[in-house]
Amino acid sequence: MNRFFRTAVLILSLVFFATYSFASSSSIKSLSKVRSSKGYIFKINYETDKEWTDGLVFRLYCTFSKDVELTFTSSGLSNIKRGWHKTEIRVPKVYRERYGYIKDYRVEMYHNGMLISLKSL
């Protein structure tokens, strides 16, 4: 039983460290919100450390003044070289008219379905 326990701990440790090193391959560096006549624009600056990165998706969670939480998702990004990059998520004006202004927001970055970075207000 003791040998089984040690083997399980070793396997879980390896999985944890592999996940941690994988998660550090890309990260969100800055997030800004711009209000325009057409709605909101969320500008995301992020960095990738691998030579090529595929399967990045950004998900924006917004809490509006009328206590409604909505999610907006970017399209999948692939063939991204190592370095700094920018992307935008737009929230149309109709949401501001229907649900009020945005009180709180956060952006999550996913790589192949796994959460790797989070940035909030």
Number of helices: 2
State the CATH topology. Answer: Immunoglobulin-like
Provide the helix percentage: 10-25%
Shape summary: extended
Identify the CATH architecture: Sandwich
The total of beta strands comes to: 7
CATH homology superfamily name: Histone chaperone ASF1-like
Protein traits:
4-stranded antiparallel beta sheet; extended; alpha+beta; 2 helices; 121 residues; Immunoglobulin-like
Verbal overview:
This protein has 121 residues and is α+β, with helices and mostly antiparallel strands. The protein has a single domain, classed as Immunoglobulin-like (Sandwich). It is 24% helix and 58% strand. The protein has 2 helices and 7 strands; from the N terminus they run H-E-E-E-E-E-H-E-E. The strands form 2 sheets. Strands 4-3-6-7 form a 4-stranded antiparallel sheet, with no helix packed on it. A 3-stranded antiparallel sheet has the order 1-2-5. The relative contact order is 0.24.
How would you concisely characterize the structure shown here?
By secondary structure, the protein is α+β, with helices and mostly antiparallel strands.
